[in-house]
């Protein structure tokens, strides 16, 4: 069955019944017998869909987790209240005091902050490596336990060769996790490329409507059991209302991603014609770092692009004049966004030829591309 068809049928209950599975709100799950209670507790040790206690999610969350596991080609998927919580959940089960973690230097800034503060405080050593690394010889240590990647890179979209990196890491006995929020379980499937863990902030495209917070970690192989125990012990789960909103968001994920990608392509091509623009960063552009790898491993691009303006151009004033693009954190919803970007801030390996002009990260929403371009053009005209 094609993935587009599966999106319409995830969580479907027996008929006659609702098209969408209903929201189940529950903390206590009742049993008629002690035997039933004990059997449920025993079953939940390996079966994530067992309804046993609200802290482990209700059937609404279980159906969402099962859907994401299928999309990611995972053995299991575990849900978290936010994307950053999912990052923490994907790292904590495998790292302890004295361990060493390798992180790609182009990682999402909030993830860097977690690694440099919380993990460091707990005795985990953290080092960073360049995005184009496929041989970890210069970075690995005897106490290295794990590699954390993100592809495409946060804000600048360099594409990693995940299959090559995973082969090298696995030869060294390391676990590999990657942030897959850009691909959001649809454009990109890191587990099929060799990763052990795929992290997604469902707040973005999976929810899709700028009104839900969610994180997910899909896992395969030996990584599954440790993650399952960790989520149970730390009480990580997703509320049924947010799970319902994300499951509903999945129905249109393919169509929305297609429109976001098309609109971003239109904006990229248009920005490249403007004399005020020094460069456009987008993984679908020929010549972009890793664009050939992205074409090989993924199936399209999302709505993100970053524009570097020529030195002296007031890009922030340009954003303030826009009417259809709002300024706000996050992305992946239906709306178009624009906000200042500083891709090299805090990085150990900044790009040496990065221009001196201001940079703006755009998210192309679901509006008509002609209207978005007209809005951008009007702001340029008023500069």
From TrEMBL:
<feature type="region of interest" description="Disordered">
    <location>
        <begin position="1"/>
        <end position="22"/>
    </location>
</feature>
<dbReference type="GO" id="GO:0019450">
    <property type="term" value="P:L-cysteine catabolic process to pyruvate"/>
</dbReference>
<dbReference type="Pfam" id="PF01053">
    <property type="entry name" value="Cys_Met_Meta_PP"/>
</dbReference>
<dbReference type="InterPro" id="IPR015424">
    <property type="entry name" value="PyrdxlP-dep_Trfase"/>
</dbReference>
<dbReference type="InterPro" id="IPR015421">
    <property type="entry name" value="PyrdxlP-dep_Trfase_major"/>
</dbReference>
<dbReference type="GO" id="GO:0019346">
    <property type="term" value="P:transsulfuration"/>
</dbReference>
<comment type="similarity">
    <text>Belongs to the trans-sulfuration enzymes family.</text>
</comment>
<dbReference type="InterPro" id="IPR000277">
    <property type="entry name" value="Cys/Met-Metab_PyrdxlP-dep_enz"/>
</dbReference>
<keyword id="KW-0663">Pyridoxal phosphate</keyword>
<feature type="modified residue" description="N6-(pyridoxal phosphate)lysine">
    <location>
        <position position="204"/>
    </location>
</feature>
<protein>
    <submittedName>
        <fullName>Cystathionine beta-lyase</fullName>
        <ecNumber>4.4.1.8</ecNumber>
    </submittedName>
</protein>
<dbReference type="InterPro" id="IPR015422">
    <property type="entry name" value="PyrdxlP-dep_Trfase_small"/>
</dbReference>
<keyword id="KW-0456">Lyase</keyword>
<dbReference type="GO" id="GO:0047804">
    <property type="term" value="F:cysteine-S-conjugate beta-lyase activity"/>
</dbReference>
<dbReference type="GO" id="GO:0030170">
    <property type="term" value="F:pyridoxal phosphate binding"/>
</dbReference>
<dbReference type="InterPro" id="IPR006233">
    <property type="entry name" value="Cys_b_lyase_bac"/>
</dbReference>
